Amino acid sequence: IAHDSIPVMREAARVLKETFSDDDFDLLGPVVRLESENVAGGGDVIVYTEVDIWRKVLLHLEGPNYEEAVRAHKQGLEVHCRGRLEKEGRYFTLRNVREFGVETDGP
After folding, report:
1. CA torsion sign, 106 to 35 to 87 to 55?
2. What is the pLDDT of residue 24?
3. Residue ranges of the chain with per-residue pLDDT less than 50
4. Helix (H) / strand (E) containing 53
5. Cα dihedral angle (73, 76, 77, 81), rounded to 10 degrees?
């Protein structure tokens, strides 16, 4: 490898570390934070799940699913869903959430 190509390779590695996506990520884990101005209208949820290591993943849920996430949080149950996992800088977000549900057996 030529010495002058090392900075280019370092920059490419940095970009790959900061951006990531998985179109069909299967999320499973406990709800660790809820944020909503109007529960019936939905809100943001943070779930602790395994990506490459255990991480917090943000997802936005519409009304009924958000209410289920609130119930799971109160009862200490895990939630599951699928969607497009995106890494933006240090943060992960699950977009296009589908097949949302609450695990009934707990963690």
Report:
1. negative
2. 92
3. none
4. none
5. 40
Q: Considering only CA atoms, which of 38, 42, 24 is closest in space to residue 96? A: 24
Q: What are phi and psi of 15, to 5 degrees?
A: -65, -45
Q: Do 78 and 7 form a contact (C-beta atoms < 8 A)?
A: no
- C-alpha 76/C-alpha 32 separation (Å) is 10
- Tokens found for residue 56: 């917090």
Which residues lie below 8 Å from residue 99, measured CB to CB, with a gap of 6+? 80, 81, 82
Pairing of strands 19-38, 78-88: antiparallel
d(CA 97, CA 5): 40
Residue 10 has a pLDDT of 72
Contact 62, 83 (CB under 8 A): no
Instruction: Give CA angle at 79 (40, 60), nearest 5°.
Output: 45
Amino acid at 63: G
Identify residue 52 by its one-letter amino acid code: D
